[in-house]
Design brief:
The protein is built from eight helices and five strands; from the N terminus they run βαβαβαβαβαααα. By secondary structure, the protein is an alpha/beta fold.
């Protein structure tokens, strides 16, 4: 069912259904949580092919796609979604700056091209811009911005700079480590990373004085 068939009045959730496509498990989990805290409704997958299956099953308002995905790449995914679901707005999130990809993004009318790690404030601005464009494309007036129903203890105080993805990763890793009572093997398994990589990250945090 198309979003254009929504009842008159356009409830606050209109334009807030986000499909996140990111193959790195830890980053996908962190972004899903952050997007939810921004007042949107995220669904996340690890591959472009899975994203297309979801889109064929139900509509989304905004697509956030990493460029470097296994199998079908992010640009190819956006090319397909732009052709099949033209009112859906797209945001590119990538770990490297690629001039050619940026040119393709402009051609596909992508809302924003964000390079990881980016401040979450930049992502929130991009999401708000995408939502406004999505509602205009559907002929709907933007509804008021609403706060998330479940504010996080880690929410950024008013006036404070938004945390970067690197800071979010630190918080997430340390929270999982605490949850597992300091058990590093269990923490690595839950995070979906190797034990060696976890020890490397924790060594960095010790140098920064984040852990003893």
């Amino acid at each position: 069912m198309s979003r254009q068939s929504s009842p008159p009045g356009f409830p606050p959730c209109e334009g807030r259904q986000v499909l996140l496509v990111e193959d790195e498990t830890r980053l996908r989990d962190m972004l899903t949580r952050a997007i939810h805290e921004m007042g949107f409704h995220p669904t996340s997958v690890g591959q472009a092919e899975g994203a297309l299956r979801l889109l064929e099953a139900r509509p989304f308002d905004i697509l956030i796609a990493d460029l470097n995905l296994p199998g079908m790449g992010g640009i190819e995914l956006i090319e397909q979604t732009h052709a099949r679901w033209p009112v859906m707005q797209s945001i590119i999130l990538t770990g490297f700056g690629d001039l050619n990809a940026a040119r393709q993004a402009i051609r596909l009318d992508v809302v924003d091209f964000l390079t990881k790690p980016c401040p979450l404030g930049e992502l929130e601005v991009a999401l708000d811009r995408a939502r406004t464009r999505r509602l205009k494309a559907a002929g709907a007036p933007p509804s008021p911005v609403v706060e998330s129903a479940e504010p996080s203890e880690e929410s950024t105080p008013a006036g404070a700079p938004a945390p970067s993805l690197e800071e979010m990763e630190q918080r997430h890793i340390l929270a999982v480590l605490e949850k597992n009572g300091g058990n590093r093997t269990a923490t690595a398994a839950e995070l979906g990373i190797s034990l060696r990589k976890l020890y490397y990250r924790l060594g960095q945090y010790q140098k920064q004085g984040l852990i003893p």
